[in-house]
Design brief:
The chain is built from ten helices and 15 strands. By secondary structure, the chain is of the alpha/beta class.
Length: 327
């Protein structure tokens, strides 16, 4: 038996509670992991509260990330005691996830714990930091460099935005942060933002082509914000799009793409190839200021994850929440 958050739905009743779970109930997989840490992402908040159609089958253990050690393995790549990390792959949505003391998953979904990071630190990074690094690597593959000009980060005070600012600044970029929480300006400057702007300047309908302002951007907002970002990029600039906080629509024209050669790079963090996941995590280990990582991290126990999920959705959480599933 082990403890985990179990989400159940019967008729119109939706519940999430910490339960004692029999290991025999774990879904199929070729690697059993003793989970040490998980984390709370926006998807986990939606899953736990039931405020979004994230969970695809019931019962479900939420948690789209986890780090731990291998307890049993039928995959030759992993031996008992190996330290491993998982992000995405439908875990916590279609397959039982990491907000529990044990998880059984496919070996293809795992990577070895990156050199230079502890299990707790990987969960402080979580999908938010991992996604931010995927965005940066995509921009750099496109040819964006620190000498090309300002890089805009939207949704700056959120998880992806916070990491994008810190990582870009560490790699030598001048970062402009766009946020709806101007009271968080000191926090954003401390992360490495050179300038903070109000998201209202980007969130309303704008002209198809606007003044050239940024060499590149990382956008987790979507909607009119993404359209205005594209319209404001410099010639041959690029935006890595990874979220839809403002909405799923994209009310733009082709003008920035055909008149300025702007590129829109879509970032899917859920099902990246093994080599790309390794590259992103090692780049995180090599780039992160681990002391700064501690300043944006709060650690809680498993029981506290349920009320924290509500706080997350209601905008009362800044930075990252790490969940020690064994306390």
């Amino acid at each position: 038996m082990f403890k985990g958050i179990l989400i159940e739905k019967e008729s119109e009743t939706y519940s999430a509670r910490v339960s004692d779970i029999d290991e025999a109930r774990l879904p199929d997989g070729d690697v059993l992991v003793d989970v040490q840490y998980s984390t709370l992402n926006y998807k986990d908040g939606l899953a736990i509260t039931g405020k979004g159609p994230v969970v695809r089958s019931f019962p479900m253990v939420p948690g789209i990330d986890f780090a731990g050690t291998v307890a049993r393995s039928a995959d030759p790549r992993y031996a008992v005691g190996d330290a491993v990390v998982l992000n995405g792959w439908g875990v916590g949505e279609q397959h039982w996830g990491g907000l529990a003391q044990k998880a059984r998953v496919r070996g293809d979904w795992l990577i070895a714990l990156p050199k230079g990071l502890t299990a707790r630190q990987t969960m402080a990074v979580g999908t938010a930091g991992y996604t931010a690094m995927l965005c940066i690597l995509a921009l750099e593959r496109h040819g964006v460099g620190a000498s090309h000009g300002d890089v805009l980060v939207t949704g700056a005070s959120g998880g992806v935005g916070s990491f994008a600012i810190a990582l870009l600044a560490r790699r030598g970029y001048r970062v402009v942060a766009s946020t709806g929480k101007l009271q968080e300006s000191a926090y954003l400057h401390a992360l490495g933002a050179a300038e903070v702007i109000d998201r209202a300047t980007l969130g309303a309908p704008g002209k198809p082509l606007q003044k050239e302002r940024w060499a590149a951007a990382i956008d987790s907002v979507g909607g009119h914000t993404l359209a205005n970002v594209c319209a404001s990029l410099r010639a041959d600039g690029a935006v890595a799009a990874c979220g839809l906080a403002q909405g799923m629509d994209f009310p733009a024209t082709v003008a920035p793409f055909i008149l300025r050669g702007v590129s829109l790079l879509g970032i899917n963090s859920v099902t990246r190839p093994f080599a790309e996941r390794q590259q992103a995590w090692q780049a995180l280990a090599d780039t992160l200021d681990l002391a700064a990582l501690d300043t944006i991290t709060t650690e809680i126990g498993l029981e506290a994850a349920i009320p924290a999920a509500h706080d997350l959705l209601e905008g009362r959480v800044r930075g990252r929440i790490v969940v020690d599933v064994n306390r």
